[in-house]
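It is worth pausing here to work through a concrete case rather than discussing structure prediction in the abstract. The textbook approach is simple: state the sequence, then state the predicted structure, then interpret. We follow exactly that order.
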Amino acid sequence: MDEKIIILDFGSQTTQLIGRRIRELNTYCEIVPYNKFPFGDETVKGVILSGSPFSVNDKDAFKTDLSQIRKTYPVLGICYGAQLIAQLEGANVSKADSQEYGRAQLTTSAKDDLFEGVFEISTVWMSHGDTITNLPENFQLTASTADVEVAAYHIRDEPTWGVQFHPEVMHTDEGIKILSNFLNICGCKRNWTPASFVKSTVRSLKEELGNDKVILALSGGVDSSVRAVLLHQAIGKNLTCVFVDHGLLRKNEFENVLTDYEHLGLNVIGVDAKERFYKELAGITDPEEKRKIIGKGFIDVFDVEAHKLQDIKWLAQGTIYPDIIESLSITGTVIKSHHNVGGLPEKMNLKLCEPLKLLFKDEVRQIGLELGMEPHLIHRHPFPGPGLGIRILGDITPEKVRIAQEADDIFISNLRSAGLYDKVWQAGAILLPVQSVGVMGDERTYENTIALRAVTSTDAMTADWSQLPYEFLAKVSNEIINKVKGINRVVYDISSKPPATIEWE
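Step two, the predicted structure:
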């Protein structure tokens, strides 16, 4: 990359969203902890300060010296970032008499490069309890709302701006325009595109890997598929892919995925390990224990296959940018271990290759399309690594897997045929450890319950339940009950994330 924007993360829940918006404007950016600015990086063109869950007046608030940054780069402070810049210059930031949460009408009050081409009155999204009550003499007020006088400012004779609202959220009508104006101020070339990423990544992979051999674990999902095709373009036959069937895939998925990859020209080894996993999972009901058994079993099977091959030096992992961000807090403390970050077992003694680690999820899909991959591979719903193991609540048996697979297949097939599949982020059937009384024909039944789950989302950080048509749900329910032996009741999950999660376990 010959240019980038640095986003200093002060802990806002929308920091990743700022990054995605900058990427959408064809500009590469990196999110770093508020106190880890990459001084000396000559590719940095500008800096954005994120919001924060703290007040700048809190004892434990995240603060950092911005003087050197402001002397060197254009700076845009958002919400907390704007308050921090102002406070460090002597402004008073105090609890607002009228706190603003939600939409507000912004009125610009001065001609300013940040608001070039922006309507004089527009809707913005506010989320703050503090407000800047006075500005130093070298600050120019540029925008206000009915309740907050200092909604935006510019430091005179310095390329530093602050906005009290959130331009990164879609509720701010002119937010993308404002961010675009900031990139213009920074002199960004806007040359971060899928085509440029593929070209530069293939080139760097060739340089990094040379004639070395690489092994890659395929899951059938978007990330691993794009990773495989990208590496195949760079090193061809030196890439070997391993696809492990742990017996918890969707119906016919093992065979279908192998066929898809064969058409892509990839060298794929398929491993049927169902019996091993069923044996190790027998009688296990705790969700976390199931995940650990499945994860360890996968690594063990993959390790066996890796040792069958000669001269393998690299393991290609599917790490994407949110994995890296979420694995470290802004203080550098691990807040959750991610399966793609640092989980390489020492016994494999392989170096890591992570060709997608700079990309957000939606960018991975764009890269796949740029690589010429079939849309049905690119637009597949996310599917958890443990597969149906976390969609079968309680212990796992081959019979329960059959039931879950058949119900899931009916649900997904109907979503496709009804033209609803691409309108849903993720969908699946969950087999509940609940039996209920039913009547089929003239006989009483006491059978299992399937819960259908479908959500809409953009990045899985938040999700809302999909409001599928009643007629569609009735058709799917009727088909599952009539065709899947062992099911006599179907329910639909209408929980959003938060407070629920997308998967049940």
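Step three, interpretation. Residues 12 and 52 are 4 Å apart (CA to CA). The longest strand covers residues 93-108.
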